[in-house]
Amino acid sequence: VPTSVTDRVLVSACFSLDPQVSKFGAKFALFRNDVQVGTTPMQAIKMTAYTENRMFTMFFLDEPGSSGSVSYSLRAMKYDTDYGEFLICEINAKTAHLNVVAVSSTSSAATTATNEVTVSAATWTTVGLAATVTPPSLASQVLVTVNMNYRADQVTSRGAFTIMRGTTNLGHATNGFQLVQTATDDINIAVSFTFLDSPETTSAVTYSVQAKSLVSATSFKLSHNNQIRQIGAIVTSPDITDCRSGSCTFS
Predict the structure, then answer these.
(1) 244: which residues sit within 8 A by CB, 6+ positions away?
(2) What's 5's DSSP letter?
(3) SS3 call for 224
(4) Which of 231, 240, 242 has the alpha carbon at shortest distance from 162?
(5) DSSP three-state, residue 198
(6) Which among 15, 16, 19, 81 has most CB atoms closer than 10 A?
């Protein structure tokens, strides 16, 4: 993708995983011009049932800090040496994609963290991710992207995740945007989602990720083993239509 020195680049990836053995684990890292972005994985995935196929989506708002052409790739490796092999897009029957789009730094913001966070509260709790943008008009919309990694501390752990605009919960009051529960406590899975918001303001708007535990006396971790987590916010053209209710018209 061509960029200017002040651009950010939104990278999104979507693919399916097919474990070939029961002890499965994979790490994924984003590379910019053949150099890894960050020093820790973008995602680390662990599953127990090798008969399961899973679809994964990842988002990252990058700051290349240079002008000219920038190339991105997503690379994978086994979780550790004693983990088995896995397939992406099994037997060419599925499609994987990596999309990139350059956006102006004046209309976007991102916060990235790698420190491990433990969530045990039954109420919405901050997890160290917030991004502030200023819409230029009342018609402006903001695309919010979230990329995190979840690991249960107990077999009964269950987590909920949402996006806040200031103090307003943009998701379901109880369940937010995404619920995560695994059958064991030795599972790592991706927590990635997006939301197209219409703040209807020209003042600065802060978006943040919050999480909570839905089962009492249990907890879960984000960025276990320091995987990258991020929130990104991009002011978009009002021609992008919000399709939450009824039919949509795109111009």
Answers:
(1) none
(2) T
(3) helix
(4) 231
(5) coil
(6) 19
- The continuous run of DSSP H or E covering 16 comes out as strand 7-19
If one counts every other C-beta atom within 10 angstroms of the C-beta of residue 125, the result is 14
Per-residue model confidence (pLDDT) at position 50: 60
d(CA 223, CA 119): 11
- Name residue 31's beta-bridge partners: 36, 73
Phi/psi-derived region of residue 76, left when phi > 0, alpha when psi is between -120 and 50, beta in every other case: beta
| C-alpha–C-alpha distance, residues 137 and 196, integer Å | 16
Number of CB atoms found within 10 A of residue 167's CB? 7
Find the range with the poorest average confidence among 37-51, 110-124, 167-181: 37-51
72 Cα distance to chain centroid: 17
Structure confidence by residue, pLDDT tens digits, 178-232: 999 887 777 888 999 999 999 999 999 999 999 999 999 999 999 998 999 999 9
Decide: 54 and 47 in contact? Cβ < 8 Å: yes
Q: pLDDT by residue (tens digit) across 67-86?
A: 899 999 999 998 888 887 88
pLDDT digits (tens, 9 = 90+) for 133-146: 999 999 999 999 99
pTM, entire model: 0.88
Asked if 138 and 51 count as a contact pair (C-beta separation under 8 A), the reply is no
Spatial separation of the C-alpha atoms in residues 226 and 114, rounded to whole Å: 5
